[in-house]
Amino acid sequence: MSKNIAIDGPAGAGKSTIARMLAEKLGLVYVDTGAMYRTMALLCLRRSVSLASEEEVVDAVLQAEIRLGYEDGVQQVILNGENVTEAIRSPEVSAAASRVSVYGPVRSRLVRMQQELAKETDVVMDGRDIGTVVLPDAFLKVFLTASPAERARRRAQELRAKGESCDEAKIEAEIRERDARDMNREISPLKQAEDAERVDTTRMTIEEVVACVTALYQKKTER
């Protein structure tokens, strides 16, 4: 039986950080699905594709070659032969990823890739529809969340640590806007799977969240 872990939740809830640490702790492979959507968004931005045009976006995405690699256990995203792991982390790409991900053919292509990865090895996969669409039979499903204000504070902290100035109120407004878009899109909207464990990280440290999810995993393993 596979021991895949599906972690869903809104933007800025700490899914990637927690998933990465869990994978390392439990000896599983970490798959950052958000990075895959960001990569498609980066491609569209570079080619000046209109994000409002499904036809243009889908045409660009279906022609692209995307693959995942691992370097010292860290996921690397390769787009048309170029490592874009760092390039996809800008706020502009993040915002574009949310718009690109609403198109059915884009999601279908990436979901197939994600499901194949989970068949090959046990994974920790994070995103917005992992437990509901990508891995509906995952061994453990977790829905990570935190208040918009707390998620904005964390994001601002990250940017300042990189020496970038930012407006925390603006970041919170963008997070609320993205939440609304992700929850109300027609295809694979963000929602908690019925059998997922909800973990509110607003007042938790990263270590506390990892310990919490690890305990949930071990409890299921012991049954």
Short account of what is shown:
This protein is of the alpha/beta class and 223 residues long. It is 52% helix and 17% strand.
Give a verbal description of the structure:
This protein has 223 residues and is of the alpha/beta class. Helices cover 52% and strands 17% of the residues. The protein has nine helices and eight strands. Strands 2-6-1-7-8 form a five-stranded parallel sheet, sandwiched between helices. Strands 3-4-5 form a three-stranded antiparallel sheet, covered by helices on one side. A hairpin with a 2-residue loop joins strand 4 and strand 5. The longest helix has 17 residues, at 104-120. The two termini are 13 Å apart.
Radius of gyration from CA coordinates: 17 Å
Order of helices and strands: EHEHHEEEHHEHEHHEH
Terminal Cα separation, in Å?
Answer: 13 Å
- Give helix % range: 40-55%
Low-pLDDT sequence parts: none
The averaged pLDDT comes out at: 92
Q: Which shape, going by the Cα principal axes?
A: globular
Number of helices: 9
Structural class: alpha/beta
Please tally the β strands and state the result.
Answer: 8
Strand content: 15-25%
| Strand order of the biggest β-sheet | 2-6-1-7-8
Largest sheet, in brief, is:
5 strands, parallel
Write the layout of secondary structure elements.
Layout: E1 5-8, H1 15-26, E2 29-32, H2 33-46, H3 54-63, E3 66-71, E4 74-79, E5 82-83, H4 91-100, H5 104-120, E6 123-127, H6 130-134, E7 140-145, H7 148-161, H8 168-184, E8 197-200, H9 206-221
Parallel strand pairs: 1-6, 1-7, 2-6, 7-8
Antiparallel strand pairs: 3-4, 4-5
